[in-house]
Prior knowledge:
2 copies of one chain form a homodimer. By secondary structure, chain A is α/β, with parallel strands linked by helices. Chain A folds into 4 domains: 2-32 and 181-326, 3-Layer(aba) Sandwich (Molybdenum Cofactor Biosythetic Enzyme, Chain A); 34-54 and 148-179, Molybdopterin biosynthesis moea protein, domain 2 (Alpha-Beta Complex), CATH 3.90.105; 61-141, Molybdopterin biosynthesis moea protein, domain 3 (Molybdopterin biosynthesis moeA protein, domain 3); 336-412, Beta-clip (Beta Barrel). The first copy, chain A, contains 9 helices and 26 strands. In chain A, a hairpin with a 2-residue loop joins β20 (292-296) and β21 (299-304). In chain A, α6 crosses α7. The radius of gyration of chain A is 31 Å and the shape is elongated. Chains A, B: Pathway: Cofactor biosynthesis; molybdopterin biosynthesis.
Amino acid sequence: MGAAKTVAGQSTEMPEIAEALGRMEALLRAVGTEPLALDEAVGRVCAGTLAARLDAPPFAVAAMDGYALRWADADGPLRCRGVARAGDPVGAPVLPGTCRRIFTGAPVPPGADTVVVQELAEVAGEQVRILAGAEARRHIRPAGSNLRAGDPVVQPGIRLTARHVGLIAAAGHGEVVVHRRPRVAILSTGNELSDRFAADRATQILDTNRPTLKALVRAWGGVPLDLGIVPDEPGALSATLARALGAGDVDLLVSSGGASVGEFDYVGPSLTALGFEPAFRKVRMRPGKATLFGRIDGLPVLGLPGNAVAALVSALIFLRPALSLLAGAGRAALPEEQAVLATPLPATGPRTTILRGHLGRGANGGPTFAALADQDNAMLSGLAAADALALRPADAPPARTGEPVAIVRFDRAPGF
Amino acid sequence: MGAAKTVAGQSTEMPEIAEALGRMEALLRAVGTEPLALDEAVGRVCAGTLAARLDAPPFAVAAMDGYALRWADADGPLRCRGVARAGDPVGAPVLPGTCRRIFTGAPVPPGADTVVVQELAEVAGEQVRILAGAEARRHIRPAGSNLRAGDPVVQPGIRLTARHVGLIAAAGHGEVVVHRRPRVAILSTGNELSDRFAADRATQILDTNRPTLKALVRAWGGVPLDLGIVPDEPGALSATLARALGAGDVDLLVSSGGASVGEFDYVGPSLTALGFEPAFRKVRMRPGKATLFGRIDGLPVLGLPGNAVAALVSALIFLRPALSLLAGAGRAALPEEQAVLATPLPATGPRTTILRGHLGRGANGGPTFAALADQDNAMLSGLAAADALALRPADAPPARTGEPVAIVRFDRAPGF
């Protein structure tokens, strides 16, 4: 759709977000696997099928507190013989003319085909009489009713939760094979950047992108590898990239530029010299235009803008789904939902426009979105205080309070 | 409210969920603190206030590409002298009658008080003429407009995200003091339980609660300590509890029973012998009635039902907020929202009733809830396949398709 609506060539040079995501996703493959203890596997992505090794429950159990009996005997008075409790071994058979006191979860003794709930039993000493309303074959959980030996319990591509862990344990497995955490090498470019606050250098520019991107990689299931700040010399970037490629254990390289102008003009030749095959070199979005993706010798490379706000926004849109694909979890759609504008917004211009704002609650209980007054891309403090982004299409007219708008709540992308 | 509506004494003996949560929360305190590198701190809870150590930006920078000039000179033609790019040091002053080519993010040179965007400048060789529409003092981000030295950037109790990490880095800090991960000791009780599948023991009952609870503790930010399966002998439980208490580094003890009947009758005397001070011994909910909370010698103890489904449901309601309080993040409300019933439901009986089900999308775009046909508490497979719980009040009449119902989506409690 993007291609059809834009001038020929533009969609190739500066694709819409959806088109750029599609090109990126086509080039990413799930990383390798490792076995893990069950409780360490939550959040990881299952890489194989596991089948139950036993029936659960292993024998028929009572589903209610009451009396286990042969239904054929239910008309006459029964002698109550013995008690079956949860955790007991399967007991002796119930003989004709008898019944057994039984509690929820207890093994149903051989011979018994029915559990009658205690409310429908009249008890006098050892004698039990079954009242009207009792039904044949009720209140027994058959062996294997939770799981049957051979039943599949998890499939590849599932992101494991504690509920899966319980089911895998019930199926007789103590570990599970999952995709390992993707390893993401991270670098910043820019001569002006420094890594450490020095009280005597009041005008230093601190690199915020590496700590931020390392934090996002961890939060989204990867392992960050810090390549440091690379000076603005093509030779330096090439050397760092070559080192990352040579290490051979990197699944994705993420760079962010040190300047908001001319970034690609600088990074581009270094990448080209290394044989970079671009999927896209910019994206029709604001902020975040200076986002690129491609491969060098098979290694996926995501280039983010140098500006801190633009880098974060672009990471939410591109890095999060990249990590999901590398981790084996498939495509991770941006968690968009609808809200109602609590403030008017200006027309958008030629790119998808992404705004920071605060959420509220509308008259009908649904979310409202109030854009921050200051949408300056340098305002990391504003982004840190915001709750959500709004995404507005290119060339949209001004929007009034009360109009619908697509939003992404930050709490729907934990860690962001 | 619970107290007023129920028989006197009942609310003390078997409180409603909200009352039980309140009693638990009153007894939990945040654990100690540790310093962490910024990128390792995502998801952890800030334990102090951090203030900016420098202005950001450290000097005034251009907010647009254009020309930096003295507004007093804007009427006449200007000679363009030099270029300022992002990352450049602050340059020489702009002399009267001159301007400087400047790009977004570049330091505004001394003397200049205005940046005129390039679209409002007519350039002929070195000569620049400012067009109508340019405005005084525009397009300059003053020093400290993002952060001012001394500004607080994070407060105690904030759960840190990557956006906070960026802001803390911009403020000149390389680490942050956070609450350490709460240490949670976990045990199961029950003679019938085994830990490891044995192909020659077809009727074994595997302990699913310990792997599940360890997984939940990890997912919800704690460190699990496995105390194993404790046999059904009061001496054994006392010995294990004494060992856990003696270790001194446990923040919360979580037990789950091995049987669904008579659990407290068994665990109770062991706890009492150890000086257990109960906050509650059961909860007016179904499943999950057999949940208890209190302290032994100051150590918080949460007892969960032995049944796997009941233990998971009770963990969502009690363990999740307990970990939030221990981690310093304050109260974590159950993330309840409204849905519409896609299936009718029966009347509920004397306890808050919690049902497993699948989510769908209703005609108006909101969520619908279809209860699983089998609500048997033994059906871990059903819980694993479900998307949400519905919570219905005690003594509610049957509900029809289309009626509203309170739900908790599992994806709102990641890891569950």
